[in-house]
Amino acid sequence: MIWNKWTQFYFHLPIFLRLLFSVCLLMLLFGYLIHIIEPNHFPTTFDGIWWAFVTGSTVGYGDYVPLSFVGKFVGILLILAGGGLVTFYMATVSAGTIKHEKNLTEGKISYKGSNHTILIGWNERTKQLIQMFKEHHLQTDTVLIDHTLNKVSYQNHRIHFIHGQPTSDEILKKANIEQATFIIITADPSLTEEEADRQTILNIIAARGNNSNVHIISEILTEVQRKNAIRAGSNVILRSNNFMSSLLYQSLFQKDIQIIDIIAKTLEEQQFCTKLIDDHLLEHEFYYCAQHYLHDGKWLIGLIREGEMILHPSFSLKTQKDDKLIYLKAMAE
């Protein structure tokens, strides 16, 4: 009964561990055997084990050599059995390493970490986002889910790639969505705006169904689907079309200034933040609060009051309890 349990346990181990266990067991057996046969030349069991590993791995230092006929015959058996087993073990480890690297590149390996960020969709926006993660040394692992790519090099992008549909529970579990902190869903550029928004909403539903607490940021292209994205469970909705239209409109009146470059530079180097107002700033004018934040290298640009965003308010506006201050700070902070 016990033997059957050990046999089942052994054959359920990964092949690398099975081979390593077999090599060690074989070397221990031959080491003990040579110690029993030639106790004068191999005074301890460890000396015999050392000789077995050196001989079986075909290193052959020659510091211990069997002298008797029986000892030499044991050595021949060790070379035939142990040498082949060690060689097979090394070849299996090498092949397994190459296969694992290939599977990792092709998105077949599950992610085992936690508190990570999941990106859905491979496009210029996600590429730039990953680059910003690198430049600003964001302390989070990044997992990419995409069904259009065949492979992504981990060495080049420092991301864990999962190949498959982001609406599949199996694929989301491979990305360990249950322990993810953020999910960023971008619009599929290969689809029409209506189709891309429908796909985004399906992705939101699948993600929210697998993790009710994860913070979901999604890109929606059409206004009509904005409310549906919120109903589906998205925490933040980004309207990229509205943003670009506003930039183009601003550019009409700024012929000598590259307004888009200015805004892009600001977004790259500065971070928008919100913070519940501190008690010592209550009932003070906005100008006073702005001066206070400037001392800390932060640029106060507005506040959120009763769900309404107020940008660049009057300097004489007095703060109230539960106000959230909106400010810019350098990315490096």
From TrEMBL:
- Where in or outside the cell? Cell membrane
| Record keywords | Ion channel, Ion transport, Membrane, Transmembrane, Transmembrane helix, Transport
A single GO CC term for this protein reads: plasma membrane
Q: Name one GO biological process term.
A: potassium ion transport
Q: What is this protein called?
A: Potassium channel protein
Q: Which Gene3D superfamilies match?
A: 1.10.287.70, NAD(P)-binding Rossmann-like Domain
Annotated transmembrane regions: 15-37, 49-67, 73-92
Q: Which organism is it from?
A: Gracilibacillus boraciitolerans JCM 21714
Q: Entry's InterPro entries?
A: K_chnl_dom (IPR013099), NAD(P)-bd_dom_sf (IPR036291), RCK_N (IPR003148), Trk_Ktr_HKT_K-transport (IPR050721)
- Report how it sits in the membrane: Multi-pass membrane protein
